Amino acid sequence: MLNYRQLKKKDPQTKTVWEYSFGNEIGRLAQGMPGRTEGTNTIHFIGKNEVPKDGMRDVTYASIVCTERPQKAEKERTRLVGGGNLINSTIDCGTPTADLLTVKLLLNSIISTPGAKMACFDVKNFYLNTPMERYEYLRMHIDDFPEDVIEHYNLREKATADGYLYMEVRKGMYGLPQAGIIAQELLEKRLNKHGYFQSKLTPGFWTHTTRTICFTLVVDDFGIKYVGEEHAMHLLNALQEHYEVETDWAAEKYLGITLDWDYDNGQVHLSMPGYVKKALIRFQHELKQLQHSPHPHEAKNYGAKVQYAKPDDESQSLDIEGKRFVQQVCGTFLYYGRAVDGTMLMPLSAIAADQANPIEATMQKVQQFLDYAATHSDAVLIYKASDMILAVHSDASYLNEPKARSRVGGHFFITNDTDELPNNGAVLNIAQIIKHVMSSAAEAELGGLFINAREDIPARIVLEEMKHKQPPAPIQSDNSTACGS
Fold first, then answer.
1. CATH code, 100-126+180-251
2. pTM reported for the whole predicted model
3. Neighbours of 455 (CB within 10 A)
4. Radius of gyration of the chain (CA)
5. CB 86 within 8 Å of CB 60
6. Using one digit for the tens of pLDDT, what is the confidence trace for 360-415?
7. Phi, psi of 284 (to 5 degrees)
């Protein structure tokens, strides 16, 4: 994200570009900018005296968010975001959306279903144009607005003596806590008329009553599996009755993940090229040495008859800047790890366990992790066509975490219905610390089996809803005592 005020001050060229972009956003939300954008009547500029007395205490701020989106028609993209943390909504604002596991299961289903293909639809201005029963109110300083917007809307006449403008929000917009749910409820009513229904068990997964089509919905991004183009066109026509829709029939990108399809050989390759490189530039990290281990390994103690818990590390605590750095690294790489590079999840989990009170040893782990990311910067996850049977490899490590705790790992993949289960790209990786202290290695393995089996259940439900019948769950463990129990 870029800072709008800094971009205005940086140089005249960026000032012109981003003021124009922000003017487009105001026009889109308000009553339009002549010759540039059409308005949606989402916001209306009003005088302070027009704010209702019972709404004055809920007046909130607005942020200007600038991003560069080279894949979009509008490459310099500005969005006005309401300060949702100060709004006291009277409705349940939880919005169902598909998680990454559901999306990955759908990708496997597409390459494993004869004749199936994927398309991606993006509904433009999805949060806008959704009527609200209760209006909200924003306040911004007039200095943030471009001069052409000020003149077009006569904003100086509406500004207060100290230069503040008030806006009445009459429809859903970015940042409002209720914007997502009211937009989706309206979408649901519109799609239900055409035979599309959202699963009651799997959030964000939709099917049709008769057509060979299903899709995942994440905010306004549709990831669609269809057998027969006429079914995808049916969904497109239903959406275009009410929305402006961008289409990607090649399905080259979904949720920030690049998809390389090979339908003939039943494969799809998932990657996020350039993501790690940008992150390393952000953290100003230069590769010190090639690193093939993302996390320090445990030194082997040969001949030991008893395994003891790790002693507490008493190295010095990090300052505020160091703590923030550790937290930002975890937040930046977590999605990349979940999306394409599961080898990062264990070190991220270990670092995250210390991020509340990080010490110098934590920073050493972070530096090793960043060296690993720089060494292996462009991971590719490959899914191959299969019989769509969900299998799990479960494992645990005993007493290798602070405070005498153990760690569980799980590898979830889609495979064939055979005695030998060929491996496949992971749809889910578990890398978490077991909350309770385990009394033995076998008990840690049993705890790992329980955790992995628990995570297996919702994934099996999704596959059943995708019309892929599941046998008893094949779960593999390498501990004979745990298996015998």
1. 3.30.70
2. 0.86
3. 16
4. 26
5. yes
6. 989 999 999 999 999 999 999 999 999 999 999 999 988 888 788 889 999 999 99
7. 55, 45
